[in-house]
Design goal:
mainly alpha; about 80% helix
Length: about 150
């Protein structure tokens, strides 16, 4: 019985070491998404009057709200991952889906056609990176939550 227990412990340690690079990579990647959101919020507030004078569409309020939500969402994802919050993998995937839906809706319906076509390569690159961390860096094992039975 003893050799089997040590094998399981070694297997568990190996699994943890193998998945450590994914966590470290995500801890470096998520702040970039959050920073883009916070910068979007900051710059829309900083140039509010100028953007209103230019009469751009959508209004600066849209940029401020969407930037704040992006910054908050990805900052929370980073904090959950940093603190090893159990549902952080599920939260990251849900956030990724919401982000991609918003990102493409914003590109298709709110941008000018010329800007859409000129930035299409970058949009596909952002989509590929987001799908990469959603599905390649977060495995099914990360989504499973182990529930401990109540002890009497």
């Amino acid at each position: 019985m003893q050799p089997e227990a040590s094998f399981n412990l070694t297997e568990l340690e190996r699994t943890k070491e193998h998945g450590a690079w994914r966590r470290i990579f995500l801890l470096c990647l998520l702040p970039i998404y959050a920073l883009v959101g916070w910068l979007r919020l900051h710059e829309s507030l900083n140039y509010w009057n100028y953007l209103i004078e230019l009469n751009i569409w959508p209004r600066p309020l849209y940029f401020a709200v969407s930037g704040g939500l992006l910054g908050l969402g990805f900052t929370l994802a980073w904090v959950f991952l940093l603190l090893k919050f159990k549902p952080s993998a599920r939260y990251n995937r849900i956030l990724g889906v919401i982000f991609l839906i918003w990102f493409w809706a914003d590109r298709i319906w709110l941008s000018l056609r010329e800007a859409f076509y000129n930035q299409l390569f970058i949009a596909f690159l952002i989509t590929a990176i987001t799908l990469g961390w959603m599905f390649l860096l977060i495995h099914k094992a990360d989504l499973k939550q182990k529930v401990k039975p109540d002890e009497p």
